[in-house]
Amino acid sequence: MSQTSVTTLYEEDFSLWVADTVSKLKARDNENLDWENLIEEVESLGKSQRKAVRSFLVRLLEHLLKRCYVPMSDCYRGWEIEIRNFRQRLQIELEDSPSLKSFVLEILSKSYEMALENVRDSYPDVYFSDIFPFPIDVDALLTNKFWEK
Q1: What's this model's pTM, rounded to 2 decimal places?
Q2: How many CB atoms lie within 10 A of CB 44?
Q3: What is the number of domains present in the chain?
């Protein structure tokens, strides 16, 4: 297949392009690979995983803040379920890519700012600290019940 037809395949039938690319990779057919699109796709995998980690972290922090600071006992169980769910999603991502643990620490401050903005908007009468109130430790964020002090 010529480079033009491979690129066209990528644009017209992504699934077929993937199958064709995998076949060529297995055959070590480097000369006929659609390198440009392959590189783009591999890069996007890393970006997608980082976006997922960021999203799960922000949502986890939102629910931790609500559970620890919003005095609405009728909501505690629901928030604890969401905390568990977002922790599990983060744990799955970190099991697949342990190097993302350092990424969590990199984005923790910004993620907290985002979570803080969200909960302050939803609960304007509740005080939430500007200073990160949890340990700066990924394992603690994924396991500790901070509301049980």
Answers
A1: 0.81
A2: 11
A3: 1
Is 98 among the domain residues? yes
Q: Indicate the burial class of 129 (C-beta count within 10 angstroms; 0-12, 13-18, 19 or more).
A: exposed
Instruction: Dump pLDDT digits (tens) for 83-138.
Output: 999 999 999 999 999 999 999 999 999 999 999 999 999 999 999 999 999 999 99
Structural domain span for residue 70: 49-141
Report if residue 42 sits inside a domain. no
Any domain includes 36: no
pLDDT digit string, tens, across residues 38-53: 999 888 888 999 999 9
- Show the tokens assigned to 32: 């006929």
CA torsion through residues 115, 116, 122, 126, sign: positive
